[in-house]
Design goal:
Blueprint lengths: L1 H6 L9 H4 L2 H6 L10 E8 L5 E3 L7 E4 H13 L4 E6 L19 H12 L4 E6 L21 H18 L3 E4 L6 H11 L6 E8 L6 H7 L2 H4 L15 H13 L3 E5 L5 H11 L3 E5 L1 H12 L5 H14 L4 E4 L2 H8 L5
Parallel strand pairs: 1-3, 1-4, 1-10, 4-5, 5-6, 6-7, 7-8, 8-9, 9-10
Antiparallel strand pairs: 2-3
Bound molecules: ligand PBG.
Length: about 350
Amino acid sequence: MTQILTNRSAYPNTRMRRMRRDAFSRRMMRETILTPDDFIYPVFVLEGRGEREPVPSMPGVERMSIDLLLEEARHIASLGVPAMALFPVTPMEAKSLDAREAFNPDGLAQRAVRALKDAVPELGVMTDVALDPFTTHGQDGLIDDSGYVMNDATVEVLVKQAVSHADAGADIVAPSDMMDGRIGAVREALEAAGHIHTRIMSYAAKYASSFYGPFRDAVGSAANLGGGDKYTYQMDPANSNEALHEVGLDLQEGADMVMVKPGLPYLDIVRRVKDQFGAPTFVYQVSGEYAMLKAASQNGWLNEQAVVLEALTSIKRAGADGILTYYARDAARWLNGQAG
Ligand code: PBG
């Protein structure tokens, strides 16, 4: 007994704190480095000129008309952010049961794409392929008499919508609707239309999340949706294997990139997807995540810059190649060493 005690060194032979002691050695062993290249900036687009509207549940986020969006796009590109994702705010009178505005070649999204590719060609432009901004009931697809979202009839409209975005010059089309078979159908139609370079980012593992509330306010689909939910097509937050099944199918059907959505509460899914498939994997840090970080920061309860960069770093560490975030502009500025 005495023997053992005297033989044991009084000191730990591994001191984990040595490498943490100074900034230089912390930098030497840092695994995950966030850069503006990691971001995609989601924006809400309005009709009109010189129009700017704050989104009440997302302080700091504004809906903008196309002319103002172009200035924002130049700024975002100059900060080093590679791409922007467009979400049109459709006026009530353009919504319908058949969502035909979704594939109007002169629709708001299509016009925004053309204007952006003309003004800031180096910035990647991604579009949302889904019908919720265009349906009177706020669902992502066409409904039958019972209110059930019909899969195959919806896919036909999504295909027209995606092709109209590609015709307008979209670099990436991103189906966010969660219908079955839509990636294959969109890919086939894009090829047939000669759009062989258009990338597809599939919202592959998209959960039926309550964190989307502020987004639905921002695009104006919340009121239409009313008490409705999306449980018959978006995934159950309790499931993990189902996400791998979805991602596998979308890659087989021709997706170039896959997405997990929301972000922070779903990082276990991100890690599994990245490990299993090794495909370009993106994460959407959604509106509710933004709202939480913003609200706590505005109350002085959290240090905004520190928590936002920590959350984004964690998403990347979990396996994300890129992050859709409403903080893209601010985070890029912070990373570039600019104040504010
Ligand atoms: C709809 C769509 C949603 C989001 C992106 N596309 C909301 C929904 O599915 O109801 C959510 C994004 C966010 O919350 O930031 N197709």
